[in-house]
Here is the input.
Amino acid sequence: MIDFAIRAAGTTCTRVGANPPTTQEVLPSAWLPPQSLPPFERARWMMERLRHPQLGCPWDVEQTHTTILPYTLEEAREVADAITNEDDANLCEELGDLLLQVLFHSKIAEERGAFVLDDVVTGLVDKMVRRHPHVFVPGGKGTTTPVEQVHAAWLADKANRIDSSNNALAGQAGGTGGTGQAMGTGQAEDTGEAGEMPSFVVP
Here is the structure.
């Protein structure tokens, strides 16, 4: 009898007497995330196993974007609390919990055929490169660039992205309501009301 236990999102799932995956399985044959993998790849492996339809955790398998949304919000708040309390040990743990949410949502999206985790990472890198020409473009002035100039470039790029999204929505029926409200929230953030990048922070 093989006992397999893994903890995720506060739930312990135990599979007793299960046969190890065959070579035809998508997942590796090991029960635990291989130590030979880099940390991020071990996390990806873990998420693959948790969502596996036969070998995974029943709680994790049945989750959707909507059902884990409260956990995503909760983990973000707990990260904020750890920062406010200057608690490094707790911050390390809470950042891991928030990363789990990224892995979870990305895996659910992959199963829906929407996008994969690599798309999330690639999109992030491309965005940060695009918004930091003073760092990534040859001849950039780096940290000697005035913060105000950095902030203006950041907001200009975000405004362009919002305009592009609005133009795409304009041709779709019913492109108002929740989506429009969300877009409005993004614009409010750009004005500094709940800014994604406050003017006193160098990105």
In short: Residues 88-112 form the longest helix (25 residues). The longest strand covers residues 3-8.
